[in-house]
Amino acid sequence: MSIDSFTTKGTLSAAGSSFTIYRLDALKDAARLPYSLKVLLENLLRNEDGRTVTTEQITALAGWDPAAEPATEIQFTPARVLMQDFTGVPCIVDLVAMREAMAALGGDPARIDPLRPVELVIDHSVIADRYGTPQAFERNVELEFQRNAERYQFLRWGQSAFDNLRVVPPGTGICHQVNLEHLARVVFTEESVAFPDTLVGTDSHTPMVNGLGVLGWGVGGIEAEAAMLGLPLSMLIPPVIGVKLTGALPEGSTATDLVLTIAEKLRAHGVVGTFVEFFGPGVANVPLANRATIGNMSPEYGATCAIFPIDDETLSYLRLTGRSAELIALVEAYAREQGLWHDPDHEPAYSETLEVDLSAVVPSIAGPKRPQDRINLADAPHAFRAVLGGYVDCGIAPVGVDASSAESFPASDPVAVTGNRPGDSPCRFDTGPAMEPGPLAPTPITLQDGTKAEIGHGAVVIAAITSCTNTSNPQVMVGAALLAKKAVERGLKPKPWVKTSLAPGSKVVMDYFDRAGLVPYLNEAGFDLVGYGCTTCIGNSGPLIDEVAHAVTDQDLAVAAVLSGNRNFEGRIHPQTKLNYLASPPLVVAYALAGSMTVDLTRDPLGTGSDGRPVFLHDIWPSQQEVQDVISSSLRPEMFTSDYADVFAGGERWRDLPTPQGTLFAWNPESTYVRKPPYFDDMSHTPQPLRDIEGARVLALLGDSVTTDHISPAGAIKADSPAGHYLRAHGIEVKDFNSYGSRRGNHEVMIRGTFANIRLRNLLAPGTEGGLTRHLPDGEQTTIFDAAMRYADEGVPLLVIAGKEYGSGSSRDWAAKGTALLGVKAVLAESFERIHRSNLIGLGVLPLQFLPGQNRQSLGLTGEETYTVRGLADTGELPRQVDLTADGPSGTIRFTARVRIDTPTEADYYRHGGILPYALRTLLPA
Questions:
Q1: Are the beta carbons of 156 and 657 closer than 8 angstroms?
Q2: Which of 244, 441, 680, 854 can pair with 850 through a Cys bridge, CB separation 3.0 to 4.6 Å?
Q3: SS3 sequence, 214-233?
Q4: How far apart are CA 625 and CA 251, in angstroms?
Q5: pTM for the structure as a whole
Q6: For residue 25, what is the DSSP state?
Q7: Residue 390 CB neighbours (<10 A)
Q8: In this structure, what are the phi and psi dihedrals at residue 776, rounded to the nearest 5 degrees?
C-alpha cells in the first residue's frame, strides 16, 4: 500500500466497476511527460513506501529534464515477468532451491512462490530438422521432447507446484507473440486497483509488447528473479527519443521494410540505452501488428524499448484477439483518464525528436551480417557482390550493440550496453553497375532424388518464414501465402537447393491460413509447418540439404540464408551460411523461388512458368487490397479465444510426461540438465557479519571490454573443456552436449563454463586464449575452474581484476552466478556495465572500482600478489571506499578503491550474501 505523499489516490468507474487509481494529473508537471515516463511515474506513486520508493524519486521523475544526462536512480516494480525456456529454467531452479532452504530453516516451503505473475513460454528448443513434408511438425516436436525431456519434466512439475507460475508448453508459440495475442493485459487490476500493465522479460525481444502500449523490456535472470519475488528493479531515468510518424506505407512496402528503415535510421542517429516513443499523425496509420514488429526489433537499434501509446487501434486489436469487453472498456477509460491516450496533435517533452515519413519506405532487405544494414531491394544483388570478397566486415569489428546481440546467441539474453559506438552505424555498400545474374564459383550438385543443379556464391540455401517479429503480423504472413499461391499457380517451385520452412509464433496463423485455403499452396511451395517456436531465428535451423552442405564446405562457398527474423550475425543462423539477410515473409518466398542473391528481384525473372514464359516478382506480388480482403474474410476473434482457451494445458506428449509431485522437487541425481544449486547451503536465519577479505589471490587478470559472454558463454560446449569433461564423465556423447544456454539449470556445467570462452585472454596466463590461468604461488598453468577448486580446498578467497566496461554485452545472469560459485569475493575494475555490477551484488560479490586516474598498470599490479581488502568488517553502513594491500615479490602496494554499492537496497542484498538469501530471510517466520 502506497503512503501516497502527493495525495494522488482517486477513483475510476469503468465497465460497471469502480477502481482505485493513482492519478497522474495530481502532479502538475506530469502532462508534459512522454507516455513511457508517465507509466513509470504511476508505478512510483503506487509503490511509494518511503524507503525503496521515495518522494525524491517521484519529484525527480515528475520534474524530468529532457536535456539532462541520466543520473537519477528510481525503483521500478513490474506487474509481471515473462520468460522463455532457455533463460527461464535457471530462475525456476533457484526458486525450487529456495523452497528447500525454507524447509531446512523451519519455514513453510509453500511460501516460496512468485509474488508477481510469471508466464514462461517454451519456444527456444524446437529445431527445424525435418522440413518440406506435412509430417515435419510432428517429427520435429517428437525430436524436441526426446532432447529436452529432463528440462520439460522439471517445468511441468513447476507448473503445478507454483501457484503464480504458468507455463505455455512446447509446440504452442513464441513467447512474445503469445504475450501480444493473449497474455498482455494493457491495464492490470489487483484488489480493485487499476494500473498500467508492465513487465520485464528474460528475452531481448520482450519490447514487442510495446506495440500494445505495454511498457516492458528484457532483463537478466537475477533481475527477473527479483521481480518475481516482488522486489523493485533499480534503473536510471532514461532519455526518451520521440519519433514522429507521418504519412502511410505505399503499395508494395511492408511492415518489415518499415522496421528495417527505422532500425537503420535510429542506429545512424544513436539511441542505445534510451526509451524510444512514437507519436504524431502517422501513428494512426500504423496497424498494431506493425507496431509490434517495430517494438520487437528495438534491441537491433539499441533502444531499451520502443513504445506506442494507447489509441483506437489498440482497442481494435484487443477486440480482434478476443479480449473481454470489460477489459477493453477499462483500457479506454483508464488511458483517457490518466493522459495515456494518444493525441496526434500533442508533442510531449522529449530528449530529442526524429521524423519518419512512412510514405518514403521502399522494399528492403538487411544484411548480410547486421540488421541495421538496410539495402533497397533493387540494390540487393549489387550489394551482395560488393561485400562478397570479405564476407562483409564494413571494416569494423563488432562492438557495442552488435557484439552484444551476436553474443546473445542462442539464448536471446537481453543486451546490456551503455552509450553509442562508431561501429553501431549502418554500413553503406557500393552497389556498382548493373550485372548479369548467375552463380559465382559455379559448383554442380546432384541431389538425393537425382536432380542435378548448380550452386555458387550467393546461393540461397535457407529460406525461413520464422520469428515472432513477422509471424505475428497477418499482413505480411497473408502476403507471403498469397505470393506462394500465385507462384504455384504459375508453375513455380523453390530451387531444389533451398531448405524452406514455416515456423509461426502462434497457432492462430495456421488457423487463418487454413480458413483462407492457403495451406496447400504453402506446402506446394515448400513452406510446410515445421514448428511453433523460434527455430531459424536463433540458429535452430537444422542441417542443410546434405549435398548442398558438402558442396559449401568443399568449395568454401559463401552461401546465404534469407529469413523473416530479427538478427542475422554470421554464425547465428547456420554455421555454413556466411551471409544472412532479413526480409519480409513475401520476400522470403521470392528468394526461395529465385534461389540466389545474384538475382535482381525487381528486374529478373524468378523462374519460368508452366506456360514457358518468365515469371517476375511483380507478376505474383499481392496488392494491399488482396491481402486485406483475405484478412477480413479469414481472421476471426474466435481463433484466438479457441487456441488460447487451454494454452497452458499442452498436448498429449506434455500431459504424459512422467512428472514428480509435491511441494519440493525430487531432484534426479543423474540429470545433466537440472540440478540443485548450492546458493543456500549452510544458510543461517540471519546474515553473518561482514568480514574483510584477506589473503585473496587473483583468478583472472583481464583487459578492457570483457563481456558477459567472455565470462559465461552461451554457445557450444567444447569436448576438451571442463564442462565437456564433466558431461562425458556422466555418459553424455559429444553430439548430445547441446549448448551452455540449454544447460543453465545445471550449475555444475555452468561453473565449468565460467571464464571458459575461447576468446578470453587472461593476462595471468600470457600467450593463451580460453579459460586458463596460473595457480599461485606455484605458477602451474591450469584451467580457471580447476584453479578455483584448488583455491577453495586451500581456503583462499579470489579476486578478478579488469579494465574498463567490465561485464558489458548482455544481462546474462550466469556471468555473475558462475563468478560467485567459483569463489570470487570481489571484482576490481576500472568501470562496470551497470546491470552486471548489479548482478554481482545480487550474488554477494563485491564490485570495487579503481579511483579516477588509477588502474592496474598505473599501480604496478601484476596479479601475482596476495590481496587484502579492509574496511568491510564491523561497519554499520557499508563504506564508500575500502583500502587494499597487494603483497608481491617486489613489495607491498597500498591503494584505495571505491565500493560500487550505490543504493540502500543493494547494500541490503550484499549484507545478506545476495538477493536470493535476502528474499528468503524476509519470508522466514519471525
A1: yes
A2: 854
A3: CEEEECCHHHHHHHHCCCCE
A4: 9
A5: 0.91
A6: G
A7: 10
A8: -115, 145
